[in-house]
Task: structure prediction
Amino acid sequence: MQIAVTFRHMDTSEPVRNYVEEKLVRVNKYIEEPIDAQVVLTVEKKIRHNAEITLVAKGITIKASAEVTDDMYAAIDAVVDKLDRQLKRYKEKLKRHTTRKGKGRDLTKTIFEAASVDEELEEPRVIRSHSFSAKPMSVDEAVMQMDLMDKEFLVFTDDSSEEVSVIYRRKDGNYGLIVPKS
Result:
């Protein structure tokens, strides 16, 4: 686990840094390696202690923050507890989404070279070709898998209709679904 600790409006403290690293070890049981953790510790007006953690691991990003008026150690404990709850909820969500039994399909993705305006090629040239299996899953599971893999789109077999479908991330942050017409 890579941990970067940033101190704002306070002196750099090795005991606090060690305490953060010691507390973040317990999130390893929820997420597979590699994990990058960005920790920002801030003191405002000498009484408000803020701790903010951003975890990035295998396609997921989880953020948590906590504010405590007593001391920095309490703020660190609060934010790690909050992060722990978020990761538990995420892990349970993954367990509930079981793979569906159904007919998967083997597909091939082909990337063609775009002909420039000056060149007048009659046939597009294949740059790369990739074969993969479109696994049967529900739309909710497809959205979750796409987020986990940090992709812009995902081709999958809809477990209810057994048709190949495409889910994609729109520019406004929502999702679009392309379903073949019957």
The two ends are 49 Å apart (CA to CA). Strands lie at 2-8, 35-44, 48-57, 60-68, 105-112, 126-134, 136-137, 153-158, 164-169, 175-178. The chain has two domains: 2-96, 105-178. The longest helix spans residues 72-96.
